[in-house]
Amino acid sequence: MLATEFDPALIAALQEADKIVVLTGAGVSAESGIPTFRDALTGLWRNFDAQALATPEAFQRDPALVWGWYEWRRARVLAARPNAAHRAIAALAHRVPQLSLITQNVDDLHERAGSRDVRHLHGSLHHPRCFDCGLAFALPEGRPEEPEGGRRLPPPRCPACGGPVRPGVVWFGEAMPRDLLDAAFDACASSDLLIVVGTSGVVYPVAELPAVAKRAGRRVVQVNLAPSELDRVCSWNLRGEAGKVLPALFGNAF
Ligand code: OAD
User: Fold this and answer.
1) Which of 35, 187, 223, 29 is nearest to 113 (CA)?
2) How much distance in Å is there from the Cα of 201 to the middle of ligand 1?
3) pTM above the 0.90 mark?
4) Which of 104, 171, 181, 231 for a ligand 1 pocket mutation test, highest count of atoms within 8 Å of Cβ?
5) Pick from 168, 169, 166: nearest CA to 67
6) 158-189 as b/e, with b when 16 or more CB fall inside 10 Å?
7) pLDDT digits (tens, 9 = 90+) for 172-183
8) Distance (Å) from CA 36 to ligand 1 centroid
9) Please, are residues 38 and 200 in contact by the beta-carbon 8 Å criterion?
10) What mean pLDDT comes out for the span 66-80?
11) Does the CB atom of residue 226 touch ligand 1 within 6 A?
12) Residues 6 or more apart whose Cβ sits within 8 Å of residue 89
């Protein structure tokens, strides 16, 4: 996409905004080599469904399978580096009076690109806790262990109660922290511009945020490789890789 192709009204909206909210999904980390949820899983995990592994029931049924899957993802994240999209969002925070960054991602690539106060609505791979008593568990330094046979890895035990340690992410069927969600809804409803990047917009309640902004009369711009459920809510739909579109867009505006 050429920088000159951006709608001047979008550039003006960026320049005039006092409060910008950026909402990201798995697509923002795709160019760092982290597979999205809608991608077919590859390699060792090709016969598994990422959604089916992301439930409390799946963990209770087979903790080693689910822990092995999350440790595999955490190993990929630790080996990955932030990409141009993460960096462009971190730099944007220095160009606008107020920027809130809300993500569905459980990786730490936004932080490693320099973003501060990232609101992780779906939790984090890096903050596991006990499944039974909820006590935070300190992961050992360095790369995760290689799962036995390539996949299954028994979770560590909680030092306080002996329960199995679970990933610190929000699973299907679980509620996300109320205060975080309320703050996200408030931020979107009061933003001057919401920038939605790399999310399919199918997992609720986060998928509701762009509509909340629109109903409050706010403008919404989406960056996505492909059409998404959010297209009809957005004033602008920019098709392309986030790592190319965001630097071009922000470079054009500032
Ligand atoms: P998805 O995997 O559902 O969607 C990724 C989106 O990113 C798709 O719309 C792609 O078209 C787009 N995309 C891929 N590569 C891109 C790129 N380089 N640049 C721009 N866009 C790109 O991921 P999410 O919407 O984040 O929840 O998924 C939402 C939630 O569903 C996740 O947080 C997770 C998952 O199940 C839980 O685990 C609770």
Assistant:
1) 29
2) 8
3) yes
4) 104
5) 166
6) beeeebbbbbbbbbeeeebeeebbeebbebbb
7) 999 999 999 999
8) 5
9) yes
10) 93
11) yes
12) 22, 24, 28, 101, 110, 113, 115, 197, 246
What's the chain's average pLDDT? 93
Asked if 14 and 250 touch (Cβ cutoff 8 Å), the reply is: yes
Which of 183, 216, 195, 5 minimizes the C-alpha distance to 96?
Answer: 195
Confidence of residue 47 (pLDDT cuts 50, 70, 90): confident
Nearest to 176 by CA among 228, 124, 112: 124
Report the half-sphere exposure of 18 (CA within 13 A, side-chain side). 1
User: Ligand 1: does its nearest atom lie under 6 Å from the Cβ of 25?
Assistant: yes
109: left (phi over 0), alpha (psi -120 to 50) or beta: alpha
Fold of 1-34+82-122+176-254: Rossmann fold (3.40.50)
122 is catalytic: yes
Q: Give me the residue spans of the domains in the chain.
A: 1-34+82-122+176-254, 35-79+125-169
CATH of span 35-79+125-169:
3.30.1600.10
CA of 107 to the centre of ligand 1 (A): 13
Residue 39 CA to ligand 1 centre (angstroms): 9
Question: Among the atoms of ligand 1, which is closest to the Cα of residue 121?
Answer: 33
Pull the structure tokens for residue 225. 């490789």
